[in-house]
Protein: Glycolate oxidase iron-sulfur subunit
Organism: Paenibacillus radicis
Amino acid sequence: MNENLEALRKELKYDKTDPCVQCGYCLPACPTYATMGKETHSPRGRINLVKMVGEGKITDLSVLEEPMDLCLGCRACETVCPTGVEYGSILEAARAAITRRKKYSIPVRALRNTLFKKVFPSRKAMNLIGNAMWMYEKSGVQKLARKSGLMKKLPSHLGEFEAVTPPTVSPLERSSLPRFTPAKGTKKYTIAFFVGCVMDAMFRKINQLSVKLLSEAGCDVIVIENQTCCGALHAHAGKLDETKMLARRNIAAFEKIEVDFIVNNAGGCGAMLVEYDHLLCDEPQWVERAKRFTDKSKDISQVLVLCGGLPFASHAPQRVTYQRSCHMTNVQRVTKEPVQLIRSIPNVEFIEMKEAEMCCGSAGIYNIVNFDASMEILDRKMEHVNDTRAATIITTNPGCLLQMKLGIERENKSGTLRALHLVEFLAEAAEIV
């Protein structure tokens, strides 16, 4: 074997394709195979393409681009795989290899570099975006833009997403998230809260409610100032070097304090955080530190259950369903705790939807860059939501939340159906504002 092919195999993590026996158990679990019906858009089809590149049968990596780009990265295939194929590692390696060789136009390259190096990793920059969104809403510009029809002319269907973006908090309220919030009553745990980048900019209210819920449940809550983006968006975009850099920054920041858990409230962020040890497995000076970090990483639902739940008030009966975050289900393997919390609320009837584990089509920015494919998946999801006759869809990830809000609009059900993050729903039930 020549040195170039050997190096390419290592870059693509070719050895991780060996356990795939092409059995097809992954096919029914794959949303893109279900909606597109093409072998190249299934997990085993994508793995086979990587194998062919690693064996020198395909020499042009651009052949991989469309199949990998159209993959949601939901990793449902890993959950059903009988041989334990690490599909997520193969996917990320393939995307990184494609990205290293792709020639972007100067404007696109500049935009990518700005977003991934200057914006997402910077809490200051993300706060500025959050404040700008608040000004856009409160100044009347938003109302004017919507009334004029300008939103409908935005590229990539951005106007549709703008319409379902939740209201942001004011700059004054944005600066009010305390560094330390004491537990109410007897302290059970000390936790460090991971605020995220998009969560903190666009969903700051959910972060605020998360801190209040944790405090109410008996946790001392610490918000570390120099934390940064988890790196999930970078990994999805094939920028693994930047992902590793962000992982190292977060590990260094959080290991400075002694806590029981590092808690997040976003399925995608949590999935990235719990895999820092795998991400840095080739860096001896970081792997043990990363393992200590991942051992402490928990979703907020897990910690609330460990604390014994929350004191809920009695409200009018309501029927709800739950859109499971792919990365919480398939990567973090957190499945029982959110449902347990929902079922513990008085007068709530929980109805599990059909194909509950199937992706909603959000997948980071997949629904923006692959809008039509995403909407096919969403429309199928909304059929199952409608069958439950629920009044509320509960989610545990910001992308899922926006996607389900968009689904509600597409179904013209904004008057009878709503979507809430689990944290919002729990806070509402516990009368925490």
